[in-house]
Amino acid sequence: MRIVLVGPPGAGKGTQAAFLAENLSIPHISTGDLFRANISQGTPLGQKAQEYMRAGQLVPDEVTIGMAKDRMEEPDAAGGFLLDGFPRNIAQAQALDSFLTDKNQRLDAVLDLEVPEDEVVKRIAGRRICRSQSSHVFHVEYSAPKKDGVCDVCGGELYQRDDDREETVRKRLAVYHSETEPIIDHYKAQGLVTTISAIGEVGEVTARAMAALRPE
Ligand code: AP5
Ligand code: ZN
């Protein structure tokens, strides 16, 4: 399956993507995680992305689209993938459409996670992520690690993202409304969108998402 996950910052895209990708046996491709990996490795791409991410702005399309395509060309993505955080504006959605058309492929679904803004703010304020490549996600209250500051999964150090400060979060939400939300209509016109509520326990949301993706 080829799936796009969309929703505001803090909706739980990364959290759900980890479970959905495992259930569906497809790779989880997060452009945010790819950028953060490049930043921690100090690559030129990471250096370019860093200033935009810190400011809560989108990284320019000429950097992002190439990086996403390269990742989708990797062998593990040949049979399908779950995109998290890409596409994030109309130009990226159009680039993805032509990338797939050229390969005679198409998206199967666009899953839109709906969460009220006050909940998003709470989720982001308490988020802690792991420094490992896998970016395991925790929340100080909703899914607290067993030991403070240490990842339950891999023992990595947990930290608060640079762009999770309140002011930057407000900017990211504004960018989401102006740049990213329009892709929902773009995909509605293709009959691909299912909107689900992302409120409730993580497992409940996963069950709702699986029911939307595999209705039978
Ligand atoms: P990115 O990393 O994609 O961030 P985002 O879209 O802002 O989304 P988040 O990672 O903040 O949230 P999420 O929905 O994954 O929530 P999570 O599962 O962590 O992008 C970061 C930046 O990179 C962008 O601002 C931009 O600069 C750049 N970028 C990335 N892609 C780009 C692109 N395509 N084009 C241009 N620039 C791009 O959950 C949040 C918290 O809530 C966690 O603590 C979690 O434990 C908790 N939680 C999750 N589910 C639940 C639940 N059901 N109940 C209670 N708590 C929950
Ligand atoms: Zn970890």
Automatic annotation (TrEMBL):
Region feature NMP, mapped onto this chain: 30-59
Binding residue positions for ATP: G10, A11, G12, K13, G14, T15, R127, V137, F138, G200
Any Pfam family matching the protein: ADK
Database matches in CDD domains: ADK
Pathway assigned in UniProt: Purine metabolism; AMP biosynthesis via salvage pathway; AMP from ADP: step 1/1
Compartment(s) of residence: Cytoplasm
Catalytic activity as recorded in UniProt: AMP + ATP = 2 ADP
Entry keywords, A to Z: ATP-binding, Cytoplasm, Kinase, Nucleotide biosynthesis, Nucleotide-binding, Transferase
Main location (coarse class): cytoplasm
List of residues binding AMP: T31, R36, Q57, L58, V59, G85, F86, P87, R88, Q92, R161, R172
SUPFAM superfamilies tied to this protein: P-loop containing nucleoside triphosphate hydrolases
Boundaries of every Adenylate kinase active site lid domain copy: 127-163
Primary enzyme class: transferase
EC number: 2.7.4.3
MF term (GO), any: kinase activity
Entry similarity comment: Belongs to the adenylate kinase family.
Assembly behavior: Monomer.
Domain notes: Consists of three domains, a large central CORE domain and two small peripheral domains, NMPbind and LID, which undergo movements during catalysis. The LID domain closes over the site of phosphoryl transfer upon ATP binding. Assembling and dissambling the active center during each catalytic cycle provides an effective means to prevent ATP hydrolysis.
Role played: Catalyzes the reversible transfer of the terminal phosphate group between ATP and AMP. Plays an important role in cellular energy homeostasis and in adenine nucleotide metabolism.
Name the UniProt record assigns to this protein: Adenylate kinase
Gene: adk
